[in-house]
């Protein structure tokens, strides 16, 4: 049986190279094909989907990832070396090569952690984190973006123009740790760092908010695809990422303090309305 000419291609082989026989141009997008390996990391998967590392996601060295991070996202050498080599060390693959799925190894000193933004926790008895993206988690994550009043007024197509900033990320982190469970300090730092990098790579300013375009972010986190025609416009450095990560941490702290204060306020008003009603009930008796 032959397929009509207009039929989209059904599964092809990517192999070790960076060129895809279907995507055409060198960094054109092509999703993983049967047999390709992928990680629970949108950044690395997008690099494979656009041919910045082997499209099959297999037998990758830390050096190949360094090259990919610099070319794809414009990371500085110190930041790219830090992420790739420290990452391989944590994963237990220092000096060796790996397939992308191995990056999701779930262990105490691994990079992978619970309470991810769009992935479920690693299931009991499983060695690797799931790579499936839960579309409901994506939608909830996008709802964590609270646009300013001015942004809403200025936009006819909200999602196109809204920006996601470190406060929105903090809201999502607090929510996910409440939904799953709190994660330890090292993994909390990793989780903040993951988002701090992309906040730096795509940062842009509107009249009243600084952040990254929600449409870029949604496509990247859910389809593991880069914005059409986008190329890095600056070198993203390690020090800047640390500052952004600190902003997220402070915003998380503030949200938790506010939640405590409002819970204490609720408890106080419940107690006072209880004593009121039991007092008046007593008066009537
Ligand atoms: C441009 C550089 C990078 C960025 C922007 C980035 C960003 C992200 C983001 C946002 C997530 C969270 C996905 C979620 O919460 O559902 C993630 C997950 C992950 N990334 Fe990356 N990443 C980068 C590079 C790397 C590198 C170099 C490694 C390892 C060598 C790595 C390993 C991981 C792992 C293991 C996870 C899973 C963590 C989890 O359990 O949620 N990433 N990354």
List the helices and strands and how they pair.
Elements: H1 42-49, H2 62-73, H3 77-91, H4 135-143, H5 149-154, H6 158-161, E1 163-164, H7 166-179, H8 185-201, E2 204-205, E3 210-213, H9 214-223, H10 238-284
Antiparallel strand pairs: 1-3, 2-3
Helix pairs in contact: 2-3, 7-8, 7-10, 8-10
Bound molecules: protoporphyrin IX containing FE.
Features of the shown structure:
285 residues, mainly alpha, Chloroperoxidase, three-stranded antiparallel sheet, 50% helix, globular, disordered C terminus, binds protoporphyrin IX containing FE, peroxidase activity, Heme haloperoxidase family profile domain-containing protein, oxidoreductase, heme, metal ion binding
> Number of helical runs?
10
| Main β-sheet, spatial strand arrangement | 1-3-2
| CATH C-level name | Mainly Alpha
CATH-derived topology: Chloroperoxidase
Residue share in β-strands: under 5%
Return Rg in Å.
Answer: 23 Å
Low-confidence stretches: 281-285
So, CATH architecture? Orthogonal Bundle
Q: Largest sheet at a glance?
A: 3 strands, antiparallel
Distance between the termini: 88 Å
Q: Give the cofactors and ligands.
A: protoporphyrin IX containing FE
DSSP summary, beta strand count: 3
Helix content: 40-55%
Number of domains: 1
The CATH homology group name: Chloroperoxidase-like
Structural class: mainly alpha
In sequence order, what are the helices and strands, one letter per element? HHHHHHEHHEEHH
């Amino acid at each position: 049986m032959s397929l009509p000419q207009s039929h989209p291609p059904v599964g092809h082989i990517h192999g070790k190279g960076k060129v895809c026989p279907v995507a055409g141009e060198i960094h054109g997008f092509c999703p993983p094909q049967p047999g390709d390996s992928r990680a629970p990391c949108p950044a690395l998967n997008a690099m494979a989907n656009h041919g910045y590392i082997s499209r099959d996601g297999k037998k990758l060295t830390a050096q190949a990832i360094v090259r990919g991070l610099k070319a794809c996202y414009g990371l500085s050498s110190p930041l790219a070396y830090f992420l790739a080599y420290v990452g391989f060390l944590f994963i237990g693959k220092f000096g060796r090569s790996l397939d992308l799925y191995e990056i999701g190894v779930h262990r105490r000193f691994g990079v992978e952690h619970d309470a991810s933004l769009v992935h479920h926790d690693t299931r009991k008895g499983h060695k690797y984190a799931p790579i499936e993206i839960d579309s409901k988690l994506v939608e909830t994550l996008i709802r964590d973006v609270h646009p300013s009043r001015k942004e809403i007024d200025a936009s006819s197509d909200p999602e196109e123009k809204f920006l996601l900033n470190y406060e929105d990320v903090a809201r999502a982190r607090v929510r996910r740790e409440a939904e799953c469970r709190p994660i330890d300090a090292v993994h909390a730092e990793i989780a903040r760092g993951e988002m701090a990098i992309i906040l730096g790579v795509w940062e842009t300013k509107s009249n009243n908010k600084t952040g990254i375009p929600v449409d870029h972010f949604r496509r990247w986190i859910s389809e593991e695809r880069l914005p059409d025609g986008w190329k890095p416009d600056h070198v993203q450095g390690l020090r800047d990422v640390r500052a952004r990560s600190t902003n997220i941490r402070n915003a998380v702290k503030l949200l938790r303090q506010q939640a405590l204060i409002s819970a204490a306020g609720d408890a106080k008003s419940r107690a006072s309305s209880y004593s009121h009603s039991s007092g008046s009930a007593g008066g009537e008796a």
